[in-house]
Amino acid sequence: MFHFFVTPDKIGDNEITITGPDVNHMKNVLRMKAGEKIRVSDSEDMDYLCEVKELGDDYVSAAILSAERGKTELKTKLYLFQGLPKGDKMELIIQKAVELGVWEVIPVFTKRTVVKLDKKKEEAKVKRWNTIAESAAKQSGRVVVPRVTHVMSLKEAFSYAEEFDRNLIPYEHAENMAETRELIGGIRTGMKAGIFIGPEGGFEDSEIEAALKKGICPITLGKRILRTETAGMAVLSILMFSLED
């Protein structure tokens, strides 16, 4: 069943109105017809089973058949602070992070970031990344589309995470696996948790020192060195498994 997202203002008592790019996709790509069943989420916490009623020039109306609270969201908000990688790796990272239940993805410039973005390029990238997040949310049955924010400096990212309940930073020189298990195990339902991942080449020692001063906890991911596109997924996978109810 095809899945679409709308904002709450598009939801009436008995009907939902879909607008924007999804209209063209439904009409000209999926070639949907009146009477087809679709799933619609309100980007907050509600899921609707609907039946397409009318496909207009710039809207699709769908009758609400049933509604229920979404069951696919983690009750812990996980924030992935991802050091900008080279090439198209960020697209893969966003896609998989959304599938694994991330709440928000924050792209971060660090000292070893190779990618350079001017304002125009950044705006285009962020728009593209949010489109990927929405597509991944549809594919994985999410009720919420995780947001990809503007690119932050590491200092800005540290400030952004200051009020979170726990922040972790995988670091290749961290060694205490027992402490890592304890730190990850301490993330509970209802918390906000940040995960800081460096770009290719990892974090510089001075950045880890700055993280420590902010109360961010270094953790180890084992004896192997993971690529930037793997490290965040490893942490998110562990957390998803432990936090699912």
Descriptive report:
It is a single chain. Helix 2 runs parallel beside helix 3 (119-139). The two termini are 25 Å apart. By secondary structure, the chain is of the alpha/beta class. The strands form 2 sheets. Strands 6, 7, 8, 9, 10, 11 and 12 form a 7-stranded parallel beta sheet that branches. It has a 5-stranded mixed beta sheet with strand order 1-3-4-5-2. It has helices at residues 21-29, 89-99, 119-139, 154-160, 177-185, 205-213, 228-243, and strands at residues 3-5, 15-18, 37-41, 46-55, 60-69, 77-83, 104-109, 147-148, 152-153, 166-170, 192-197, 217-219. It has 2 domains: 3-69, Ribosomal Protein L25, Chain P; 77-243, SPOUT methyltransferase, trefoil knot domain (Alpha/beta knot), CATH 3.40.1280. The model has no long low-confidence stretch (mean pLDDT 93). Strand 6 (77-83), helix 2 (89-99) and strand 7 (104-109) form a beta-alpha-beta unit. The protein is elongated.
Short synopsis of the structure:
By secondary structure, this protein is of the alpha/beta class.
